[in-house]
Design brief:
Two copies of one chain form a homodimer.
Chain A lengths: L5 H18 L4 H8 L4 E2 H8 L3 H13 L3 E6 L5 E6 L7 H18 L1
Antiparallel strand pairs in A: 1-3, 2-3
Pfam families (chains A, B): HxlR
Keywords (chains A, B): DNA-binding, Transcription, Transcription regulation
Protein name (chains A, B): Transcriptional regulator
Chain lengths: 111, 111
Amino acid sequence: MEKHTKETCAKSKLAIRDTLDVVGGKWKLVLVSVLRSGKKGFNELSREAGISPRILSKELQELEMNGLVSRQVCNTKPVTVQYELTDYSQTLNDVLKAMEKWGNQHRQKLY
Amino acid sequence: MEKHTKETCAKSKLAIRDTLDVVGGKWKLVLVSVLRSGKKGFNELSREAGISPRILSKELQELEMNGLVSRQVCNTKPVTVQYELTDYSQTLNDVLKAMEKWGNQHRQKLY
């Protein structure tokens, strides 16, 4: 990160807050990491990520709004919906990688 | 990140979830980024980060519990309390850097 001045600090605080606004919260990055293995239906996602349908629906909508996940309605009977990561979501790779690394080292520190 | 197999996926999902358990939520990383400019009192932190005292107190306690922030009671009248990042919190630098970078590029994408 840049040298700390009041200005660069405010700027980096803002950028971090922007990121947290989009992918913060308990579930968004978990969902992105679950979807990395390929597109998934709603129930499958709910099961794999361990999220209740009500919350999952809201989280997916927000991810879609921010261009990170795309939603595809399939013409089946009954209609099914599949969720998939967008190309843009790949820009999150460095964030996910850093978090994965940190999670691993923190776990080692604890046990 | 490693190649996707069911096993490496589960492991990386777990590591990301661990990280989110410790520093996820709306405020933790914002607090860490605010404290990067030096130790701060409770009211100062509340003001700078824009967090209500009730929530700030809870967030600081959790950060302290995880060894990321230290709390120092100063023998003044009235007693004041200062919060400071620990050395261990520096392990979060890569996460913060990645989030800062992403926040900046996402903002450019939007405007």
